[in-house]
Sequence to fold (1512 residues):
Amino acid sequence: MMDVTRRQFLKITAAGLGSSSLALLGFSPQPALAEIRNFKLARTTETRNTCPYCSVSCGVLLYSLGDKSKNVKTEIIHIEGDPDNPVNRGTLCPKGAGLLDMIHSADRLKHPEVREPGAKDWKRIGWDEAFDRIARHLKADRDANFIKTNDAGTTVNRWNTTGFLASSATSNESGYLLHKVVRGLGVVSLDTQARI
Amino acid sequence: MAWQSLDIQRRSATTTPAPGARQATEVAKLIDISQCIGCKACQVACMEWNDLRGEVGHCAGVYDNPGDLDSQTWTLMRYTELENNGRLEWLIRKDGCMHCQDPGCLKACPAPGAIVQYANGIVDFHQENCIGCGYCITGCPFNIPRLSEKDHKAYKCSLCSDRVAVGQSPACVKTCPTGALHFGSKEAMKDHAEHRIADLKSRGFSNAGLYDPPGVSGTHVMYVLQHADHPEWYSGLPRDPKISPWVGIWKGLAKPLAIGAMAAITLASLFHYIIKGPNEVSKETEKEVENETRS
Amino acid sequence: MRRDPNDLDRYTASERVIHWVVGISFILAGLSGLALFHPAFWPFTMLFGSSIWTRILHPYFGLLMGVAFLVMAVWFWRLNRMNRVDWEWLRRVGEMVNGNDEHMPEQGKYNGGQKLLFWLLLFGTILLLFSGVVIWRAWFHFDINQVRLASVVHAAVAAVMIGLIMVHIYASIWVKGTIRAMWYGTVTRAWARQHHRAWYRYMTGLGNGQSR
Amino acid sequence: MTNHWVDIKNADLILIMGGNAAEAHPCGFKWVMEAKATRKAKLVVVDPRFTRSAAVSDFYAPIRPGTDIAFLGGVINYLLSNDKIHHEYVKAYTNASFLIHEGFAFTDGLFSGYDEAKRSYDQASWQYQVDGQGFAQVDDTLQNPQCALQILKRHYARYTPEAVSQVTGTPQADFLKICEFIADTSAPNRTMTICYALGWTHHTVGTQNIRTMAIIQLLLGNMGMAGGGVNALRGHANVQGLTDQGFYTEMLPGYLGSPSDSDKTREEYLAKRTPKPVRPNQMNYGQNFPKWHTSLMKAWFGGAATAENGFCYDWLPKKEAAYDVLALFEQMDRGRMNGFFCQGFNPQASVPHKAKVDGALAKLKFLVVIDPLATETAEFWKNHGELNDAKPETIQTEVFRLPATCFAEQDGTFTNSSRVIQWHWKGADGPGESLSDLDIIAGVFVRLRALYAKDGGAFPEPVLNLAWPYRIPHQPSPEEIAMEISGKALADVPDPKDATKVLAKAGEQLAGFAQLRDDGSTAAGNWIYCGMWSQAGNLTARRDPSDPTGLGQSHNWGFAWPANRRILYNRASCDAAGKPWDPGRAVIKWDGTKWTGNDIPDMRPDARPEEGVMPFIMNQEGVARLFGVERMLDGPLPEHYEPFETPLGLNPMHPNNPLAVSNPAARIYPGVMESLGKADEFPHVATTYRLVEHFHFWTKHAVLNAITQPEQFVEIGEELAREKGIGNGHRVRVRSKRGQILAVAVVTKRVRSFSVNGRKVHMVGIPFHWGFRGATRPSHLVNELTPFIGDANIQTPEFKAFLVNIEPA
Fold:
């Protein structure tokens, strides 16, 4: 009994000493190799764009997964400043630095919807239905309220019962096209965010 | 490891030296508080690059949001409104890991390889080796590392070691709109700081200076302060940070002492046994007992 | 187990159980603690599943050890009150270590060394418990300076405790016939007479024994 | 901006007032820091609160919201009375010497010609004295009491430092210190740049705020100079572009005035908008108006626009009234609107007086919201508790919500504040079924056109004949439209100087607006953008950042309108002989045969200095206007008027004239006066503003930004907090006459009370970013509080100065 105890004690001591001296010699049971995180942009696709927020119009680089091959759904995973842009030279403010979350916001709209008169919620519709219904609304209102001449008999050709407010964050091309279309329809009730 | 300066210089809980023949350029981030507008672009860029999204919290009556560093917030703007000589100053400090040359976290860390210091001076946490004990917090003179509530690992700024590894600057530095953040070799950063300090002095900040505290053998994140004589004005930046003497004892003297003592006791016991032999009940006593019992 | 009807009962079953609960949890806490204390002992983390399990389990081992020890202390503290004879014994402990125990002052159930050990362990356990709580980040958030102080205290006290326990273990191995007291609860009369004569007298009514 | 972002680095003094560039435009603000670092420039900030711009300034002074004209009028007075003006510049390049009509007067706060009933001015007495040829008369000695400079002196003599401090609450010493900073830049080789933004425009005197600074910059000789100019730091990425595309009722693309009922014929319309020179030998560039307009009509109506039908002039609608956004909501509220489109515009959040906006939207038959994000406006009918207490069952508006792609998901151009047009490329598809704005506009139009083609209807001609030359009619490409905007030759365009040469062959893209013609041989959707897509290709996509000028011009990066010119009025950077005022920062110079240098000259390239062609080529007089003879509806010289909700109840500059308390020419709709609060009930001045962490109402949808400023707060000073028993971080209720919001109080030293007109006025600062949709904490829209009243000239709402009360919630 006593012998056993002694053996046990020696065993424990030896094991302890043994393993600790092994460790002292550099042996470690978990070869914990320190490695840095992989550079996450290594094989992403880079696209040059412009920050949509303020009018500094910083150049941004959009980094997306995949190489735009046919079967790959492109997903933007990172955005940073474009160092070539002479104004921002690669920098971005907190808004610009957070652009990724605007693109991927949970509040992004994905489908056309309509809220019927008096309804408490949205109803998903298709683009065809949306375009048709809107076009019919426009035509009905324009046909009913178009003014060809004013009281003095001057040709005025205006329609002022449907109004348009345009973004000042949309591209020049869509701003221009919208302007062309609404003036072509005779609209005078139009304004842009730029006023505010 | 993609870049030789990311060779490891020091490794937590490791008693033998790392390969060190190559001479790497030491890097540093310079935070020029006099050019900082506290816009938090660095904060957002840090979260974006490192895929961190903390809680959307509340306004607590200050601009500091989130309220403190945490596992999802590796850098944070801290705001101080100071009235000095009748003029208001808004001192805004970007808080985060200072990447000490003598890192208290690394010294305190018990897990081999959970904290490393690269040859370029960056101190990095490797969460896969982290055991979540929080000793790094105990060791840090700047109160930086934070344990995650979710995975119980410690996190802090990595100085974007992944970006630096491929020759890029940290995300915060790249984004900084006003040029308050700079990144380069530590020498270059000190030179730049010198220019900035001269400019500040010409604008009436006679005590402008560089914060590169010698108590931790210098840092790889340095500040240009308008009031270098009062670092504590900047949300309590420590005046003379060093690794706490308690941590020093704990991770210094205590270790060999304790091991020595235990080894000594073990060896003393062994040799005592060998020399003196077991203390057995003597035959006489046995006899006396027999007699007594019988009587 | 009573091998000989004359053997003396030294520990009841529950006393033995609590001792071994303390002992085992001390060893577990000690091994896991040492693993976190010095890289040389890092391989001990493998005993506990992984390094993270070591970190998770260590405080619970400690807590178990501490609580069990406190229970034990409640049971045993009266037996460990120091008296003049104990101090006398301690003064002359050198003779004992030297192997000449015949002239040592007569001891009750515990000798001065054991009593001193008891109080040191109790004191250490309390310190370990308190300092351990302070640095137990999974549950508590103390001021950083308290944590730093507690870290040193915890490490230092633990080292001392380990030392004491090693002495305790060695003493039990060195003094033959001791360990069975904690295995079977009994000791031989001869053992008792030689090492704890006063207790021997008390237990047997032989040899003018009064004191416990 | 007359100059551009990078050019700010060339300044010696940067004044930030009426804006907060560090927070609203951080990446542009870097050039302020660059000027400080490399030129030892000074930064001076004047703002109601200590902003983050102020945090890095060399000098900061507070100002009561809505009193910028008083401050700047005081600066004008300081410059004139201390003779700190750039004499040569003022004499040569401004209308300082021009004689103003004898009938001009300014009496007790009102200019001559005021009609109280119409709340407007007859501007007849604000004109130049003209000679028989129609040329303005001048007095080169500048001594004639009717010359503009003398009138200016008299007008601003009232703005003494004492008066300025009384009105603005700026301590006199601070004001004078800033005057010294500014006066220093009157030296020919010193420049100041002014960076302003909504802090000047969001007032009922918004346009005049900017006019005041323009006068100062002219007196200092800082217009046209590198590091000078009047720089509007604009809001959205393409707010400049949308302004350029003229999406305002009163404009067509390229700032061409749109016709109104009085423009009965094309001839009348053109005549009214084609200015006659008022001084000899001037470029009077506006005389080319018919070329620009005709080219636009060709772009819009293509082959249908012929000389015979006046290039479809009659197809353009004529407006008879105002249709700015306030007017639109006023009309809507009166039930005169049936349909409404909000494309990337969230009026419920960004138009004042939310209760009124809610009521107006509920009267619509249909509302179409086109947006990448779920805006508040699209859900104005939905109940969001007390944040939007709507009753859906009572609202009969049919609402369509169409998902648009965002910037990252489409190609196209944005025009930045520097007027640089830059192409951007699509990085990924939009989410779900989202479509680009172009596709949505085309989608609706193509359907509508088909309905008209099939069923006929009211005046279908312009609908059916709108030029639609796009390869895929329902999906016009951004490239096609950019080319259309830039313009092309429809027939060969001969060189007017040499008829044997052809400048552009039929079908070619035009090189610039000089090639536009008024005979229908050219088409350009926007004359000022002409040349952005020339025969050389898409110049907006150029990406060469090199800058051999050292001034930061980067001429081969994108394309700046007009004509890739980076600094407007750059002829004024030289003296009369064509020598740069500051050779160290020369923008252009006369090299003996032509204008040349570091920018596209804003001058006829071969105009010899001796010809006396003056730099301000868009004005008929060739010089800039210290005295504003046309355009300004509320006075030729800026005058301080109180905000419509004034804490004082009177105008300290005209304490005895109730007509002159607030802008006498501002438009007031019926019922609006009743919706304005008085100081007895709402004693505190409120001002709204943006924070650096957020972009308007967008970034509240982005988690990253929501984390950094999660919740609506208001800022108050320590004194007011003590008075009201409001602790830092406590919930408060802020009320105006129109509504209320709940918020967290931020009690700060950065907000102070003002000592004004012998009393103390407290301010409540209200950042403008949160709402009941988004990733941030749900909150009220701040426009619950704001007044439904706008600037006298352009109707930008007065968001920056109104009255509230505050109490613990």
